[in-house]
Amino acid sequence: MNSEEEFYDAVTGFDSDHSSGEFSEAVHKVDVDPHQINRTGRHSGDGPVQENGIKKHRASLPAPMFTRSDFSVWSILKKCIGLELSKITMPIAFNEPLSFLQRLTEYMEHTYLINKACSHSNPLERMQAVAAFAVSAVASQWERTGKPFNPLLGETYELIREDLGFRFISEQVSHHPPISAFYSEGLNQDFIFHGSIYPKLKFWGKSVEAEPRGTITLELLNTGDKCILNFKPCGLFGKELHRIEGYVQDKNKKKLSVIYGKWTECLWCCDPFTYENYKKNERRGGDQRKPKPNDDAENDEADDMPETQETVQVIPGSKLLWRISSRPPNSSQMYNFTSFAVSLNELEQGMEEVLAPTDCRLRPDIRHMENGEIELASKEKERLEEKQRTARKERAKDETEWRTRWFYQGNNPYTGTPDWLFCGGYFDRNFFDCPDIY
């Protein structure tokens, strides 16, 4: 996928129809009982437990990825040129064993950046960390050629990661158009992250265009600072491939920091004066060199991550905000999943007793595909899609409207634009009226 197709362009109040993103820190408002989190947020099925009490998540899928060499990709996709893929029934060969709701949860892989933002008293450093979080959210999509399963109407996914300090819930709130709503909160009551996404995918022969529309909001303390990030279009010769440029400005629109890098590698920042001088020298053909890790570049805890091959030209005096984590050695046999993605469909003993019956982990076609049972997965996918069509016809016959369970339509309090907002109550685990979708 090209850089212009990115999944996540900004954090607060950004309409993804645009090629650049603006976000600002919103008012921190959380109404959460910490005792309730401890009481309802923990359950024995949330992964195995090591002797030291730290939960250990699986490191690989039950079965390796099947070969796609037996499928004629072009014979299928040539019929789809210019069409929206979400409205086309695609063979399961093009899927990866995750629902789109689980794919959304990958926003949270680098939650430590939100925690860092919450810990900074300096508003500039806080916004830089938020910018790094916005970029890190798309990094897991790199080299992921599989298409996630389209969620069924009413499908949900929850994830509680006490080691990362958050809990997450999402729901498929609309089928036509397909809209996925999500809500996440810090277990320390330090942030709320929520939004709704309407993905549009089109195939253009040699590339797939992804246009995720919607609003994503991260609520922190209010400072008036703003960050603008531009995910650069690839360009004719790929010169701008994966590149990101942006800046942090104050309420008077004064630039405080320049941010640059690649969403597939790393993100750096430096002061605007240094950046402009560097660019002027570059245009004049001056000698530019990429410094070594400790050569005029400031380091932080991100430098403790595994080294990756970087192609970003680092400006001397820059500070490293984020670096992509190395993927597991068997990633290519696991749909190019990250370690975080590998754990998303994990279903340990006891989890079925506490999960909503609509949770993605209980979806049989994804489960069969994960286990390498491709024919069974394909049959189950067809059965579930037909069941969904039948249910829709019955509702039309009875003139009844679909009722969402955990989200409702309203206006985003910070942008004033239409959005899907969390009703609350999910973690009370009262699932008696959940629909039968599987």
What features would you describe in this structure?
The protein has 438 residues and is of the alpha+beta class. The chain has a domain at 6-55 and 75-223 and 331-428. The protein has nine helices and 15 strands. It has helices at 34-40, 73-77, 100-105, 112-119, 123-139, 272-283, 339-342, 364-370, 374-398, and strands at residues 20-24, 95-99, 147-149, 156-161, 166-174, 179-186, 192-203, 208-219, 226-231, 243-249, 255-262, 266-270, 319-323, 407-411, 418-422. The longest helix is centred in the last third of the chain and has 25 residues, at 374-398. The protein starts with 19 loop residues before the first strand and ends in a 16-residue tail after the last strand.
Structural key phrases:
globular; 438 residues; 6-stranded antiparallel sheet; 5-stranded antiparallel sheet; alpha+beta; disordered N terminus
